[in-house]
Amino acid sequence: DIQLTQSPSSMSASLGDRVSLTCQSSQGIGNYLSWYQHKPGKPPKPMIYYATNLADGVPSRFSGSRSGSDYSLTISSLESEDTAIYYCLQYDEYPWTFGGGTKLELK
Amino acid sequence: EVQLVESGGGLVQPGRSLKLSCVASGFTFSNYGMNWIRQAPGKGLEWVAYISSGSSYIYYAETVKGRFTISRDNAKNTLYLQMTSLRSEDTALYYCARTTDYYVMDAWGQGASVTVSS
Predict the structure, then answer these.
(1) Given Cys at both, which of A3, A94, B53, B89 links A26, Cβ 3.0 to 4.6 Å?
(2) Among chain B residues, CA nearest to A48
(3) What is the pLDDT of residues A34-92, one digit of tens each?
(4) Do A44 and B108 touch (CB under 8 A)?
């Protein structure tokens, strides 16, 4: 199975900060990677798909990028509502696999 | 409004079976592939199973293969997950999720809680 390693596992940042979360794949998955935001008591919400495409309704401060087997989710200016756990997901092949998640908190 | 509502969760003894349902509304259910995803207490998300719109393609995580069966009834707008030989490590909140043509899970239910314990 394809392994996704997310880093850091947790982080804190201040309002207005530029934040980048990373997801590394154990093998090539092309651009078949998405990002999900998960808040307590709510179902996950898609943020980015196909590595760089913004999902419907997602604010433009979110963006996705890829460099080889490294994928990033960037928030250009952190807002309080962005605190959550973020998961990457590869859907290049079954079984789909999630990364371990990055918990993003406010400093 | 797109809605997915899971049911059928509960407390079950190890080795027993349980069947989850996910009723869809607000969209043409038969046009979409569907997934089950779970989250164990204090753990991350784990993809469990996928079924294509017409049930032609079905895939499972290795952790559930041979024990869980995903199915759907498009006439009833309902997705199922039959779980057998349940183990304590199957304890989790189980979500159903709609999958778009771009493999985005864009609609989720609120989850059904399954606890496997004696």
Answers:
(1) A3
(2) B104
(3) 999 999 999 999 999 999 999 999 999 999 999 999 999 999 999 999 999 999 999 99
(4) yes
